[in-house]
Design brief:
This protein has two domains: 105 residues; 204 residues, outer membrane lipoprotein receptor (LolB), chain A (Clam). Helices cover 43% and strands 29% of the residues. It contains six helices and eleven strands. The protein binds zinc ion.
């Protein structure tokens, strides 16, 4: 054995372990190791170390692969959830849209609404111009009694009776037109000692459903339908936010006169009914009962002037 063979072998061992030496050198190292326990130990330790490292590397790789697999699984799961949500959202949207279409289906007169309102408006103008008509308006709110107002109009004079829910008179207005749009009135109210006087202005008619002007101001109503009510064909005009909040105006197709309206605001619903009668008012219907005002207190000159103006016309 060469004296410093151990030193040479020690230098060769790392390359031997990595298997990067020639066949001859390999045989030389193996021959030496078989007869030298010292070098054998060194080789075995190096081999052990290398194996340990290999295991560590494999573990790290395994961990990385595992992580990637888990990550991919998560991504897939997220994709499934997102996809499912999309389907659900689309389904809800489709359902809501179908409901909306169904809801709108009954109301498709659309662009003709304006002419319906305009015709009704003109019809009331015509009634007003006849200078002889009775207008009855009644209204009832959910769980409330029915209130009523009857207006008699003849040749520039009017009497308006307002009734309580129990049918008793609440107050009566007596009035006169002083121009095309302005009017004066005095109010008889048995519970008040003070004379109530007032002036009013109207651009069309005092006796007109307020809901009609509401619809008229809107111009074109959202939707309208044709319905049969008490054997009459009616246009039903509707301004709606949804099925819980809406206004409806019902107009007789034959006469183009509004006959009722509904105002619904969640659980409160108010029903109005309108009746017009032409040519039935007698002079006595619009006669002022002056004695009713005798014990009233006329507050100022303005009140006196209006009273005198009204009395002079009666
Ligand atoms: Zn040796």
């Amino acid at each position: 054995m060469i004296k410093n063979e151990c030193e040479i072998v020690k230098d060769l061992i790392p390359n031997y372990v990595e298997n990067v030496i020639s066949k001859a050198t390999k045989e030389f190292v193996e021959t030496h190791i078989n007869s030298c326990n010292n070098c054998k130990k060194i080789l075995e330790e190096l081999k052990k170390e290398k194996n340990a490292e290999k295991t560590r590397m494999t573990k790290q790789e395994d961990y990385e692969i595992d992580y990637l697999k888990k990550y991919n699984k998560k991504i897939t799961l997220l994709k499934i959830i997102a996809g499912t949500l999309m389907v659900i959202i689309l389904a809800i949207w489709a359902f809501a849209f179908a409901k909306y279409i169904e809801y709108r289906k009954d109301y498709k007169i659309g662009e003709y609404n304006y002419s319906i309102i305009e015709q009704a408006y003109n019809k009331i103008k015509e009634i007003k111009n006849s200078k002889n008509y009775i207008y009855i308006e009644s209204w009832q709110r959910t769980n409330c009694p029915e209130y009523k107002s009857i207006s008699y109009y003849k040749d520039g004079k009017f009497k308006e009776e307002n009734y309580n829910g129990d049918g008793t008179i609440s107050y009566i207005n007596y009035g006169v037109d002083i121009s095309e749009n302005d009017y004066y009135f005095v109010q008889y109210n048995e519970h008040s000692t003070e004379a109530v006087i007032g002036t009013g202005y109207r651009n069309l008619s005092r006796e007109m459903p307020s809901s009609l002007s509401g619809f008229y101001d809107l111009g074109i109503t959202e939707c309208a339908s044709l319905e049969v009510y008490e054997d009459n064909e009616l246009y039903v005009l509707r301004k709606a936010i949804d099925e819980y909040q809406y206004d409806e105006l019902w107009i007789d197709k034959q006469t183009m006169i509004p006959i009722k309206s509904i105002t619904k605001d969640f659980n409160i619903r108010t029903d109005f009914k309108y009746t017009y009668k032409e040519g039935e008012v007698k002079d006595s219907d619009v006669e002022l009962d002056e004695s009713k005002f005798e014990d009233k207190e006329w507050k100022n000159d303005y009140g006196q002037r209006i009273k005198e103006e009204i009395l002079s016309r009666y």
